[in-house]
Amino acid sequence: MLLAMVCVVSACGDDTPVPADSSQVTIASGDIRGKEHLENTFAWFGIPYAAPPVGELRWRAPKLPAPWEGTFDAVEYGSLCFQPPNGLSGKIAPRTERMMGSEDCLTLNVYAPKSALNADEPLPVMFWIHGGANLTGSSQTEEGAYLASTQNVIVVSANYRLGLLGWFRHAALRATAENKADASGNFGALDLIAALEWVQSNISSFGGDPSRVTVFGESAGGRNTWVLVQSPLAKGLFHGAIVESGTLRLSDAVKSEEYDKTALDYPLYKNNSGELVAKLVKDASSLEIIDTAKKLRQVSVDDLYVAAQEPGSEGDVGTISRPRVFLDDYVLIDSPLELFKDPSRYNSVPIITGTNRDELKMFMMFDESWADRRLGFLPEAKDKERYNNAGAYDADYWRIASVDLPTEIITRHGGAPVYNYRFDYDDLIEWPVELPTLMGAAHGLDMLFVFGTNDKFPANWIMGDKKERVQLSDTMMNYWGQFAHTGDPGRGSDERAPQWRSWSDEGEHLILFDTTSDGGVRMIEDRLTIDRLKQRLLADDLLDHKEKCDMYRKTFLIGYSANFAFDMDEYVQFAGAPCPLTYSLDKWTL
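Now predict its structure.
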């Protein structure tokens, strides 16, 4: 899969781990050595920031790691967190027949310019949160050395629990919880908060400034960055946030355990925790609740994921295929759009947030309703105009729900400055498959530019002019670096780029990232609203009535970004005729 090829480019680096005495520092857990790394940096890999969440610590808030004796050689990545086999985690990992990784995975990595250890002034810290739908991915996916070196920052990347080990609620677990954190269900989010607490306590040993921490993440990492902005538990742990293709969608805590099977959105909830526990603990209904919790913590992780699969659907893990954070009244106390109306109720820090122009087109190329298979395996759009048209609805709603709307609310109610962007780079190969159409400015493509890895194999194999893409990457890294240093992207760290202005109600309010041959980096005015998007769908001559119903449902109800724009009364009479109340989700599964 092309996306998997692109996403692992940063796993390439020096292969022989040799500790460097000159990198030795002392942290709360003990002495630690890293290694000499790329671009004149030191790197420390696999540093434990929490105790292994295994046995009795499964489905509990993270605990402090145990100190070690002697010197810890942090020269190899820690294990991936347990996840289904995939190409998005950086490198091949130990795996069972169905899964790979380990429950013992709460480690982080630090990249620093060599000069940072003896610098007169501490450097800003950029804390990276990987994506992967909160189901896959790892801290080793993105190479932090280029960003650290070119922007003179410390880069930290952390693993966090994934899937149903990271987001899971059940009455038995709540009844045996020792505190509100253990009862939350948002264990992956609590891991990230623990990692940020580790940064506050230890990053100065690496030359980092704990008073200048920027959290940034892409996709699920962007969503988790939004969670940190919202959570009272993260107050004071960071001072800026960059949300790349992140969403604000949450799960209802009650629905996660007992949902209404007659509801229109029932296909989204294939397994609630009650059903899952019934499969795993055969006599759960007759057991004391404490015994149920004990048995759950004894079940093998393989068995957990097998129980979550639908019969006959190998690899389908129901609701855990897209785990979402719960509104638990602990990690999150209210819906984001309500929180953003009062800067005192969330972490009001400067924010960069944006999306890619063609977020979800790359998923469409594997959908037979949109693409054929030339020679039996090469995807080809059936109708380019209809393909591009359909992809635009998802991407535009994603931007409205996750960028424009929260930005407007934050700004209107006196929050810290917000800087918006759209990533438009689509200079991709057209043979043997036409990637500018099939993928375009695809979900995740921006990471190759933010981390400076777009000129490395295999990413450079699918991309166009090297000089232009490297120039665009340098510009984006400079903006990100300047933001980490000052809280304002300005004209970038080299002060040569256009002035990136914060959101305003009038005039140009969004910066567009593209190569010079396609107009270059520039501020534009491009305002989207839910009403305008729905009107566009109503007037769409490329879709018949059934297709408009499908698109309305797909975009506003079961879409990746949010479902608050779905209106049942509007839907059932959309475009002047009834839309169906029952449907198959299969063709829309992303």
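The radius of gyration is 23 Å.
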